User: Fold these one by one.
Assistant:
Number 1:
Amino acid sequence: MKIKIVGAMTALNEEEWIEESLRRKLAYLDKVVIAEGAVVGHPGKLSDGCHSSDRTLEILKELEKEYSNLEVISINRKWKSKQEQQMSTLKKAKDGDWILLSSPDEFWPDSFRENIENLIRGFPIMKEFIFPVLNLVDGAKYALVDPKTHWVADNVRHHQHFFQFQKGMFYVNHPTINDSKNRDVFTHPDYAPYRKYIKYIPYNHYCYCAKIENQIRKRIYYFLRDGNKSMEKAIDIVRRKLDTVGYFYPNSGIQIKMLYRRTHPLQYRKFNDKYIPENIDWDAISEELSTFKEIPKK
């Protein structure tokens, strides 16, 4: 049985991740489709009113010329919603394809393809596999883990990343998908027998080793969109939630920050020094976004 795996991604201001992330994924995926650009209501820094302000789009175009299995989608306007942007990638899939949803700052083991094919063949009735996310922080020197097991906490929210596509599937909103009967395939009980959690194959998430301002703007967008908050309130919530490891609660009992001694995909890279909340100019962010009036669409 031929297994086809298609990567579906979106990107905005991901210059520091995008090239290496794609080169790695293109090595073990049959195809990658990535939609670049801003979504209405996202207060990111932009070029031409709708594209990344850094070299993200330029890098994507260069890579598209190099790789025949890479397709870049870029439009000359803002995407109307996150749903529209993500659907543009999903429309490239065919019935029976396996879909890997991934962000540029998420990296999977080099053995991903071999592991996945073994899982698909070993559990032929499964339609989805769920993997733990290992959040690396403070220059990837530390990981956020369960205080008892020293591994990814089971009660940390998981995201939908790897599933078998069926005709009629559509994005409702980040980060889950519904089927043609409008059932959320990630949470609906009808799909429970066909989902399997694989605890021993984590993916590494490096977002808090990145430029923190991009993460701040992304999370402001989530509160504007999903929380129906005003800009002032969204900024205030994000500001209060950010701590020394970035938007997590390492002392909450759910997870702790622990020195990470295992290998990981970017262990050779030198990251910026530890993120320091006091270095963020919140007044400048608030002033800049005070005139931002776009309303994000769910």
Note: Helices lie at 15-28, 56-66, 82-90, 112-122, 212-226, 231-241, 282-289.
Number 2:
Amino acid sequence: MSEVKVDGNYTADSIMAIVEQIIMVNTHTSSTSQRGMKIMSRPKPLVFDINTSEGYFNNIWQWWNMLPVLQYMERSKVDIACVVTSKCYNAFTFMLITATPGYRYMYEHAEITIEPIKAFGGSWNTKASQEDENSNQRQLAKYVHGTFKKYTTIPKAKLDRLFLKSMTFTAQEAKRYGFIDHILRSGTENVYQTLMQSTSS
């Protein structure tokens, strides 16, 4: 079972490291032959340990940079587990909700926070540049709304308020709204042992 730490050391430029991990585990799935039939052995899941920093990944372009991760996760033949150990901010919520159903974990005292998306941060030279930025933000908001609607059960009223103000979800709320499947008790439950047992057969 491969484990990848996703924390404050990650930047928008290094997000492709996550994609590379997904590609690698899918490339190295093994197969055996039995009575002339090829049977894929069930590989161990790829585990992403999520603990990101406040204010991290809420720039509009950083949200866009997360989209390839979603696409590879959706196409992965290997189970992908996400474990929120402490904090999960902004675009990394995408990773959490699109993990393999049944493999989305969160410790009981962990939190998910989604903040208003910030603009790119530069000054616009023309009115057209500002209009392009506004258009990109609208397109992103539409995509994010669609993704949350597809993978979670968050009420429409809350979904419509995403990005308008900061929203924080406890582990209990995250489970209620379908962000996660399991809540882990800190210090008493080891998700990695659970995953190893579930794939040992």
Note: The CA atoms of residues 47 and 81 lie 5 Å apart.
Number 3:
Amino acid sequence: MRKAVSIPLVLMVLAGGSARADVVTDWNLITVQTINALTPASHLRPGPTSILDLATVHVAMHDAIQAFEHRYESYAPPIPAATGSPIAAAAKAAHDVLVARTLDQGPAFATALDSLSERELALLVDEYAEQEALYREAMSIADEQGAELWKLRTAVSHARLLGEQGRRTEARALLTPVYGWFTEGFGIPDLQNAKRLLDELR
């Protein structure tokens, strides 16, 4: 039988490996690297233009994510009935803006950005699969040990991960029965977080 410590250990591993899922941080770095790689002698890109490159990428990612989350007002007209993964949408928005703003660098530069985008998305898919496997393992351990609160915490994290991929129906189906097991204690943060996420997944 596996030890109780396995549950928090699995969650710690997941917390430590989630950096690649931060699409904003990833594409912020890619944008800075792209700006630094632009032809230095190009008189078409003065200093303020590079700042505008970065700002435009951030605006595009913001609007792409808000098309799904609807938490903040978008800068451009809202995108109605968005479907799919908000993470992938933000990555594509950043890529498309960078390509559009670096057309003066020639087709080879755009091809390099295409390859980089494909690699980033492939790594993200691999990470999602790895994290989902760890979440499933943690929930199985919690079931064996009757650790319902740990199971709820893991289900919330797993459901949030699914939601990031646009798999909202799966996320809600995963979290609903775990949350429904509880008949009291609805004022504690774990249950409040679960209820909030379920409302967001509707």
Note: The two ends are 37 Å apart (CA to CA).
